Amino acid sequence: MGFTIAVDGPAASGKGTISKRLARDYGFGHLDTGRLYRAVGRRMLDGMEPVEAARTLNPEELDDAALRLPEVAQAASRVATIAEVRAALVDFQRAVAARSGGAVLDGRDIGTVICPDAPAKLFVTARPEIRADRRWRELVAAGHDVSFDGVLDDIRRRDDQDMNRADAPLRAAETALVLDTSDMDIDTAVATARRFIDEKRPES
Ligand code: CDP
Hints:
The chain has 204 residues and is of the alpha/beta class. 52% of the residues lie in helices and 12% in strands. It has a five-stranded parallel β-sheet, with helices on both faces. The relative contact order is 0.22. Cytidine-5'-diphosphate (CDP) is lined by residues 11-12, 16, 33-34, 37-38, 73, 76-77, 80, 107-109, 158, 162.
């Protein structure tokens, strides 16, 4: 079993960017688990029953740029409340975590449910307006026609739904390092995370 870094946090908190940088720096694999739920949400919007969609998900669908859109995020958050959908996605996530050499998984329940034994856990957060601003800029830069208010509304609704669902609600694992990136640039956030992770690594 490789070394697993579990990164959780609310919508657009910066966990994806931090996770990608950590994976690159350590030479680990990376899985953005939100893409699984977004792909199931996308299939639901296309008329498929969500549990069936989760059970038959195709890895190629995870790369679709349209998965980033707020309406797909809303659908993802809705399907993510269904216990059978979550259960259908567990094995795939754990298989990535078990890859030799190490992996970074980011999501909502990695440190609490998917990889409770992960030696390094982070909980990345930021104030909602800051998160909405970052996500809005990212979507506009990618050519999507979205309003700031629409993005903020999506984030608030998902925060509420993700924190209050019965199955695998969004919360920090007990041993997680909480990183509030509201007033922190990406380099500082990554450097802080690395110091914490290096203390947990056997070779350090
Ligand atoms: O990128 P962003 O933080 O906006 O969202 P995401 O990580 O792509 O996740 C989209 C939605 O999928 C979330 O709002 C959650 O409802 C759900 N999700 C989840 O329930 N568990 C995960 N491990 C990852 C995502």
